[in-house]
Write a structure and sequence with these properties.
The protein has 2 domains: 222 residues, Aspartate Aminotransferase, domain 2, CATH 3.40.640.10; 120 residues, Aspartate Aminotransferase, domain 1. It has 12 helices and 14 strands. The model has no long low-confidence stretch (mean pLDDT 97).
Length: 359
């Protein structure tokens, strides 16, 4: 079976972990600080704050920006549920707008109509490794004095008009094992705002500014040096691994037939966390079954938009229709694109997809 993901863990990561274990400094220490500094430099941001996961990075970002009960945050319904759940964790309410059917990212043309007196932030999700249309989003945010929190959990190293995602608003990244880079588990906040940096560090460490003096309610969202050591080595490989993903994506796009291919505009650098095709005519599930039978892994990201999840409908009372997100959920299919694929793997993926679509 050609797998959907394969974390690229080498001897460098193993050696770095053993050095941390031998040092005795295992909790949040010098490796975390070094990882934060290196990641901030990669993104072109002034600050980076390490956390335990992408979800906690989003959660802390919202709290640091002052988002709380009674506030609304506009975001995409077509994403992993952590994007919207983090808004709930902050006590605010997610407001969903529909997606662009080409990019799968939130549609900026729908933002203005969704803004109310309670709107405090916009959370664009850079889905599958492709940046959102940030000029349009930032223009509207500035006009209405809204915070922009970039959910960049799937887009490490992606760019928009030459700028890295995570440097345009407050960024939040995930280092889950299937991401473009991993720390086994972990997250990172990026910001150019000194006050967001300071607030984030206090919130992630039990509300402490001074050791054992707690000024506010905080959380234990600290990264360990073990995770940071892995992340530092992975960060060194990110650019080359992203280029391999892009090379694999180019091959797939040049050879696949009968499906709608991922989009990448002139101002965008897609890093292909997922290579997501669109299968029309009600044939998506049949194609997935065919690939499974013929040794090619695939996955549906995502089979149900957030606003149609049972918890959001039954417990939170969401009763809305967002046709493009719902149509995408019925038609998208992600196929392998990760750096460990061989040319033989790529040839097999193309052959199996085309065998089904061209029959």
């Amino acid at each position: 079976m050609i797998s959907m993901a394969k974390p690229q863990i080498g001897e460098e990561e193993k050696k770095a972990v053993m050095e941390v274990l031998d040092s005795g400094m295992i909790a949040q220490g010098p490796r975390v600080k070094a990882f934060e500094e290196a990641f901030a430099a990669m993104c072109g941001a002034k600050h980076a704050i390490a956390t335990t996961s992408g979800t906690t990075a989003l959660h802390v970002s919202l709290l640091a920006a002052g988002i709380g009960p009674g506030d609304e945050v506009i975001t995409s319904p077509f994403t992993f549920i952590a994007s919207a759940n983090s808004i709930l964790y902050a006590g605010a309410r997610p407001v969903f707008i529909d997606i662009d059917p080409v990019t799968y990212n939130l549609n900026p043309s729908l933002l203005e109509a969704a803004i109310t007196s309670r709107t405090k932030a916009i959370m664009p999700v850079h889905l599958f490794g492709l940046s959102c249309d940030m000029d349009a989003i930032l223009k509207i945010a500035e006009l209405h004095n809204l915070v922009v929190i970039e959910d960049a959990c799937q887009s490490h190293g992606a760019t928009y008009k030459g700028k890295r995602v995570g440097s345009l608003g407050i960024g939040a990244f995930s280092f889950y094992p299937t991401k473009n880079m991993t720390s086994a588990e972990g997250g990172m906040i990026t910001t150019n705002d000194d006050s967001i940096d300071e607030r984030s560090r206090v919130i992630r460490q039990h509300g402490m500014r001074r050791r054992y003096y707690h000024d506010e309610l905080g959380f234990n969202f600290r990264m360990t040096d073990v995770h940071a050591a892995i992340g530092l080595e992975q960060l060194k490989k990110l650019q080359s691994q992203n280029e391999k993903r892009r090379e694999n994506a180019r091959f797939l796009s040049e050879h696949l037939k009968g499906v709608i291919l991922p989009w990448e505009g002139e101002d965008y650098k897609h890093v292909y966390h997922q290579y997501t095709i669109r299968v029309t005519g009600g044939k998506r599930d049949a194609l997935r079954a065919f690939l499974q039978e013929n040794g090619v892994g695939s996955e549906i990201y995502y089979p149900a938009p957030v606003h149609k999840q049972d918890f959001y409908v039954d417990k939170l009372g969401y009763d809305i229709t967002l046709p493009e997100a719902e149509r995408a959920a019925r038609e998208v299919l992600s196929i392998p694109v990760h750096p460990a694929l061989s040319q033989a793997n790529l040839d097999t993926i193309v052959a199996r997809v085309n065998e089904f679509t061209l029959q």
